[in-house]
Amino acid sequence: MASGASPSSSATRSDPHKHSTAEKRAPASKEVAAVIDSLKKKLSADRCFSIKKRIDENKKNLRGVTQSTMRSCMERGGGGGSYNKDGSDLLVKRQRDSPGMKSGFSASDAADKNNNNNNHSSFLEDGNASSTTMVQGSSVPVKISLRPIKMPDVKRLSPYTTWVFLDRNQRMTEDQSVVGRRRIYYDQTGGEALICSDSEEEAIDEEDEKRAFVEPEDFIIRMTLDQLGLSDSVLEELANFLSRSSSEIKARYEVLMKEKEVSESGDNQAESSLLNKDMDGALDSFDNLFCRRCLVFDCRLHGCSQDLIFPAEKPAPWTPPVDENLTCGANCYKTLLKSNRIPANGTTEDKTGTSSDGAGTKTTSKFSGKPNRKKPKTFPSESASSNEKCTPETSDSENGVQQDTNPEKVSSSSKVKASGRRGGRKRNNNNRVAERVSRRTQKRQKKSEASDTDSIATGSRSASDAKHKENEDATSSSQKHVKSGSSKNSRKNDTPVEDSKNSVKSDDPVSQLNAVASEPCSDGSLRKDEFMGENVCPGGVSEDKSWRPLEKSLFQKGVEIFGMNSCMIARNLLCGLKSCWEVFQYMTCSENKASFFGGDALNPDGSSKFDINGNMTNNQVRRRSRFLRRRGKVRRLKYTWKSAAYHSIRKKSTDKKDQPCRQFNPCNCKTACGKECTCLLNGTCCEKYCGCPKSCKNRFRGCHCAKSQCRSRQCPCFAADRECDPDVCRNCWVIGGDGTLGVPSQRGDNYECRNMKLLLKQQQRVLLGISDVSGWGAFLKNSVSKHEYLGEYTGELISHKEADKRGKIYDRENSSFLFNLNDQFVLDAYRKGDKLKFANHSPEPNCYAKVIMVAGDHRVGIFAKERILAGEELFYDYRYEPDRAPAWARKPEASGSKKDENVTPSVGRPKKVA
Amino acid sequence: MPKITLGNESLVGSLIPSNKKSYKLTNRIQEGKTPLYSVAFNFIDARFFTCFVSAGGNGINLYNCLEDGSISLLSAFTDEDKEESFNTVSWACGVKGNLFVVAGGEKGIIRVIDVNNEKIHKSLVGHGDLVNEIRTQPLKPQLVLSASKDESVRLWNVETGICILIFAGSGGHRNEVISVDFHPSDMHRFVSCGMDTTIKIWSMKEFWTYVDESFTWKDDPSKFPTKFVQFPIFTASVHTDFVDCNRWLGDCILSKSDEILLWEPQIKENSPEEGTSDVLLRYPIPNCDHWFIKFSCDLFLNYLSIGNQEGKIYVWDLKSCPPVLITVLAHDKSKSVIRQTAMSTDGNTILAASEDGTIWRWDAINKEQADSVEAQRPPLKEKGKAKLK
Prior knowledge:
- Chain A: Residues 1-30, 62-134, 342-529, 887-914 are annotated as: Disordered.
- Chain A: This is Histone-lysine N-methyltransferase CLF.
- Chain A: It comes from Raphanus sativus.
- The structure holds two protein chains of two kinds.
- By secondary structure, chain A is α+β, with helices and mostly antiparallel strands.
- Chain A is built from 27 helices and 18 strands.
- In chain A, strands 3-11-13-12 form a four-stranded mixed β-sheet. A three-stranded antiparallel β-sheet of chain A has the order 10-17-16.
- The longest helix of chain A has 51 residues, at 29-79.
- Chain A is extended, with a radius of gyration of 41 Å.
- Chain A starts with a helix and ends in a 17-residue tail after the last helix.
- Chain B is mostly beta strands.
- Chain B has a five-stranded mixed β-sheet, with no helix packed on it. In chain B, strands 11-12-13-14-18 form a five-stranded mixed β-sheet, covered by helices on one side. Chain B has a four-stranded antiparallel β-sheet with strand order 2-30-29-28.
- Chain B is globular and about 60 Å long.
- Mean pLDDT of chain B is 87; it is low at 377-389.
- The chains are: A alpha+beta, B mainly beta.
- The interface between A and B is large, with 114 and 128 residues.
């Protein structure tokens, strides 16, 4: 709209603008008002025009739609002839036969509404006065005796509000809140509408939030200020007109001007594809949406955007079952190592590598041909190098780590032989690298022989060789690389510290790699050094360029997970991006890098984000990055961690412990929890979800029960109202599944833990039926014995404040599904829950409810208080606070005396408590 | 409710009747004393465009409008249970074209009456509370939607008696649902509104396989895998009070609270929560602040008629912009609340179901007739009132 108006108004703009700037006279308020007024008129005219246009468009579309509807009606009406050919259409007959009623008609016979229809003759007596042509027939009522057809009675359902089944609790989403929202309640008996909100909320309602500027407002501000210049009086007028403050408008005008400049300069930032993102960016949605407690995305219980808590102790990287000789595909480093080892032994390949002008195939043929000292047990390197260019393939075979742990195998022994034949001088060199490699590889693989690692080192070099060749294909001249290689190399060595810092950000990847690759060589012979520098440098260039930040980060994650296992990393994390061989090369390079800077203690911290053991070197807690989060996402939960801030004013029922349960939120401690631990401050135990190490003193230790099966208060878990957790308890286990996946080795002689029923959902079948008491009721399908777990009372987790508001509404309907859970939350099963929400209250119940801590969350379990037979209705004591309980839930003797208390009800709504 | 900001004003219709079209009262039927809540013309089958059905109390009656202004009673049905009080009635038909009348009310049970054999075809049980409105899908008249006090909307296949989908849950209504309407051309869409003052647009596109399945279901209807649809594709709050009637007008929506608004939902496909609603036109209706007063349109959506609590009927032209009031129909005898009106396919007949148990029939008259009527008539009361506004 605004844009549509601009051309016409721009014509008028220039004149007053000049006027105001030239004379620097503040325009009179009349003038301002006139300008604003004209703009306003313009706007409303535009708006009117646009509405008309849209209505017209809609009209046009509508015509087609209604006509097609009409057509289908005609077809149904026999026009198509496909319907009602039988001719026995009763309606047609009726339509033809039934006499018309030209005047009054009393349908006393048509519906037994038992009214004395003696007034039908008075119909339209004086109606003629205002509508003369109305009655054409006689005023005698026509009586038609049509026997009404009776519809047999169908029993109605007991009323309920539609509810959604929940198998686990859900946290309320913000948009479900009734706090601060007006709810109009229709009083069925009084027939009038009431507004359910109190004064405190109205205040919130009226409190005007900062309104965003809408486009028309922007238009007026821009146009007016452009025309009249920026002066206080204009601003004031505008502020008046738009009912905002003048400073607000001034600020907005500046923003608008800036926007305009930006749009004029028209900067186009290249869109970054997913692969160009860095890991943190790519992981943002994962971090935000994945619940690390429930291991599901979009967890409805703990919500999105939880604090990221990384455990202080990291598990050792996972090692697959070792099968040394299986390769992970054509590009497996094992295959390629073998093929490239021999070229690496000679120095001639350097020449070929540098001198050849990028004819890849030629090079490779030379390459494989010249240093042919070894019997071609190896693969032809032609195929190897061409393989490199292929897209990485993955195979199902399990691949061992690079070190040969069983050297008796044929291929590995040949490797050993091969390396054994090398010159001693070089060997020195390689050994050094090998030492570093082995130092950083996992401890359990330490025993690997030097000769094995030897081959790794050569492999790394030959890897860069191969890379180099590839690179030649891509980049036109290799000579440049050679020259620049050595120069960079030297520069590199001068500033290792600086670069080690950079290495995290990969600012200068070329030089880094140079440094890394050439370092080992500098210890060796001069000639070697040169060649290495020349050789590795181009390889490094291609390598690092082709490794995007995301791939690098993925690689690092891979090392954390799998250790130095390029097969696994390539297959699981870089599938389709990098081959095993490429990963291996990169790994060796970065390893050298690490060893160079880390091992030489130049800059141990900054050298890399990871070390081989997979620990993050920067141990700061990573908060979830917020920059990628979109506004107004559905189901986004917002909650604060002020767990200790809310004090319940509610009185708990007398016969239960007086302290309400405390909501657990995992702490972020990196060392054993001290005074500042949030769990300690909050008064909860640390759980397995906390960051603190297992040795933390504040941790709940679990139980050691065996024979007792954790069924009594002897079990520390049971005594603390917690379920056992196989992650925590020593002997707790159960057998799951039908045995098709194999039976686990049994612990503790068949004594399964019996205190994990909520966790495992080992519940009874509950039936929904018409209660013997009132409304719906919950019934048990099978008989159970005393203390048997029946099921969970699930619902929406809402705050106490929210519960108070909702309770007001529910009280009107005289049905409440609120249940006190802990100091932070109340369960509301009104719209979401399970069948146990229908279990009725009884002062002498056969069930009881208990709040139990299950894996860090409080949940409500319903248990049998006595033996219950199949088909019996379930009752439990809602334990409403006496002064807030509705009449039906009061103790019989108390109900009379409590009446006066009802006059001044305490704050809060009745809620069930365990 | 979004504030009316600059440049988002809507055009308000004037209450001065244009008298582009005139109607005269041709008949009145006293059904009984029980309030009538619903009246509906048949829009399904062209042979029976003159037939209509009324519902109120425990009775459902089928009538035929004759050309001479008279009305004939075709069939009458009563529920054996006197507790029943029907709130709504709609036409539907089977795959073979056999007509159904579908009614629902206080008991929450939806009655499907086969008009041809005058028997109950199905009684659909499932709603947890009373049914406020039933609407039929115009392109697939076997499908009906029912809006209930139990905060849900249900989609039924009346021929097979299957409850296909339930629209309630996390994103559903927070109070009684009062009105629903199928999109006229997009079969997957419908709109619902209710006491929570919101209007929600739902899509069943992803669930359409269940709809198809419902046609061929041979097993017990209760065994049908009924699905919950928990999230609407759009939620609008253009009103601040109960919204008790809504209808599609092309891709725009007419919704009624204390006035009728025509607004356009602007849905963002990927982020439904961020959609906006743009109110284009306003149709003021004086004395219409009771809830459960519903308007109706003709088949071609040219006109809209609505009664008010004084027994007057306002007829608006839907094709004009800004809105034009065609006429106000009033009669000395008509004093009770008109709960619902019905317009015939061409808009030439308007029926009004009144709370005093009467059905009023108004027929359009041509220009000369109208002029003669005008000449004879003393200055109209209602006209003067309208001017006052």
